[in-house]
Amino acid sequence: xxxxxxxxxxxxxxxxxxxxxxxxxxxxxxxxxxxxxxxxxxxxxxxxxxxxxxxxxxxxxxxxxxxxxxxxxxxxxxxxxxxxxxxxxxxxxxxxxxxxxxxxxxxxxxxxxxxxxxxxxxxxxxxxxxxxxxxxxxxxxxxxxxxxxxxxxxxxxxxxxxxxxxxxxxxxxxxxxxxxxxxxxxxxxxxxxxxxxxxxxxxxxxxxxxxxxxxxxxxxxxxxxxxxxxxxxxxxxxxxxxxxxxxxxxxxxxxxxxxxxxxxxxxxxxxxxxxxxxxxxxxxxxxxxxxxxxxxxxxxxxxxxxxxxxxxxxxxxxxxxxxxxxxxxxxxxxxxxxxxxxxxxxxxxxxxxxxxxxxxxxxxxxxxxxxxxxxxxxxxxxxxxxxxxxxxxxxxxxxxxxxxxxxxxxxxxxxxxxxxxxxxxxxxxxxxxxxxxxxxxxxxxxxxxxxxxxxxxxxxxxxxxxxxxxxxxxxxxxxxxxxxxxxxxxxxxxxxxxxxxxxxxxxxxxxxxxxxxxxxxxxxxxxx
Amino acid sequence: xxxxxxxxxxxxxxxxxxxxxxxxxxxxxxxxxxxxxxxxxxxxxxxxxxxxxxxxxxxxxxxxxxxxxxxxxxxxxxxxxxxxxxxxxxxxxxxxxxxxxxxxxxxxxxxxxxxxxxxxxxxxxxxxxxxxxxxxxxxxxxxxxxxxxxxxxxxxxxxxxxxxxxxxxxxxxxxxxxxxxxxxxxxxxxxxxxxxxxxxxxxxxxxxxxxxxxxxxxxxxxxxxxxxxxxxxxxxxxxxxxxxxxxxxxxxxxxxxxxxxxxxxxxxxxxxxxxxxxxxxxxxxxxxxxxxxxxxxxxxxxxxxxxxxxx
Lengths: 528, 311
Description:
The complex is a heterodimer.
Chain A: E1 3-14, E2 17-28, E3 31-36, H1 43-50, E4 58-63, E5 66-68, H2 73-78, E6 81-84, H3 96-101, H4 112-126, H5 141-152, E7 159-163, H6 171-186, E8 190-195, H7 198-204, E9 207-212, E10 215-220, H8 222-227, H9 230-242, H10 254-263, E11 282-288, E12 301-305, E13 310-314, H11 321-329, E14 336-341, E15 344-345, H12 351-356, E16 359-362, H13 366-370, H14 377-381, E17 392-393, E18 396-397, H15 399-412, H16 429-440, E19 447-451, H17 459-475, E20 478-482, H18 486-492, E21 495-500, E22 503-509, H19 514-522
Parallel strand pairs in A: 3-8, 3-9, 6-7, 7-8, 13-20, 13-21, 16-19, 19-20
Antiparallel strand pairs in A: 1-2, 1-4, 4-5, 9-10, 11-12, 11-14, 14-15, 17-18, 21-22
Chain B: H1 7-36, H2 44-62, H3 65-89, H4 94-117, E1 130-131, H5 141-145, E2 147-148, H6 150-168, H7 170-180, H8 182-187, H9 192-219, H10 230-240, H11 245-267, H12 274-292
Antiparallel strand pairs in B: 1-2
């Protein structure tokens, strides 16, 4: 198949890092080429080079066999490259067709008829049904993305870049996107799909290239990919993604093999033997919360939690999980019911009191509610103890102590940051989560509530977060893990509760039959 | 009360409303273009003042009102050039630069005027008036609305033209995108900096034109600080108009009428302390803000410089 575009030894440096290091890749017509890699592997930099947002420092970009200089998005389009970025780049106040007409010559009248004709062609090609006169703000994220794909193909572009296109889509949206990609591929378009999700790479990709730390760690050609079983693919790719040599290669790899085991998802926290004869550490009795506009309130939720236990909370998003987390953390008042922590009644205790008693909460809104982005890592690590000793004494800040504490935490939790003084919003999502987990799963934690602890993290950091949770449980911390990812809950929980319309529809022991029961509980079809 | 319904009062109120409202309308339309594109042009007052000065000097020396208007527009554009270079190209804070443009223009025009004319305030000849055929014969309305400088009629045409430009041209779409999601415009292959630069130069031209009309036609003389808050009212008008030129015109008429009330009441011989009457336009500003302030819809990217690739 003909090569539409190619990178030849392309290097791109940013202050302090090499984002791409002598990367060579070829993109062929009629093929979905998946670029797989962790956050920071250089995937997005590659997109911005091809889309004309950045220029390479060294090396050449070839389009149709010719070396080209892509110095603006316009030039990229002129070369037949269309791009769909991670963030939605549409003007919400304009209609679909107006968004697609953006970019015409200024002094001319809007040419609506030809635009509508082209819209019709592309809608047919992609298999979508969107009203061209609907304002973009009213479309679902999946529909907005289809519009972006239309824009990227508007001038019959031959190379389509999709940068993590599935990250915001529902499973329905992902299926639609997959269908559109296959149609385009069959039309001879070269597609570049960038993702960090293995399953997507297998499902949509004809050819998979793995990027690691700015280098191409390996490539699997179509014939080889088809010949492999899914388990083989997974292992091969994970080894490439994390630079783990195949056994024997590069000396003893015990540590690496252990990491590989973690990444491949071997059981982190086996069902612990929980002594339920002992009194529970947390008891919730018929707790309800008051309704507000957006979230489903809780209705008479009761459960007990023992030390060292992981209670998973499953359910379709928006069935009261947020209220449950906030009520337990003390951020939301209890309207009726009772909360006991050990021997103490904490029903009306606020955040400081509960925190002092050992209640910890990891929010799902890491950068909004969990951290203050501009503050350094060190301050964020003691954010919930501002004013309290030993960090503060008589109103004075003991910076030495805070910084020393931060350095220890950074070391023991493997937080990747230039220093403890780096603002936390300069860190990647995975490292921000490490900061939060370090702060909340500290030595004094008794009960920890974790809301979507792996949301938005790449594979490596997901595994690390789950690992931390398992380690905390082994120490005797009682954990409540709220997640929409059932597989993950089954992996780490002792018991799993299911939220449905603000009620706890049931709690099931995590055994072989759990998944089926939980799926039925999630839809409200059954009760326990 | 009957004095208010006399012909002389009504004519002077209408005529005054148009004369006082036109600079507001021109500046407000200009500001609207900038704001649509995401540039908050706080220096509007300064642009008007520079336009008033250059316009006056040009007409004073050549005797031509058209050259005065052109010079006013050019003066406003020269002030807008500062916004273009510092805020749009270099990404400096638009509010700080805007305030310094206004303060700088106040000082500079006063100084230049003093150097040229010392303490004398020469008066220009009356500006030519075009009485519209047929419409000019209507009692009261004819004299009040249809006997004005040709610039007034051109501005009304401009309102219609801008409405069309915003809605039905690629330039209009580009402006809207530059103010809402500049990254989307960039991704569509249109240079955001160029779009915003264009918008700001239009603003400078219209504000300067408004200033020149104010000095040459409205007052007939130039005095330092002649705009006395007109630019600020222009910004308010643009913010409340939700991107619709017609709303700027209605707002400008309202403020023009309240400004004209001072003279009109004197003509009618009604004895209200002038201080109270002069307060009127500003009381109206506040009342309008209280009533409609929450309805203003500003572009999300207003006031934020665009840097490619930054989140």
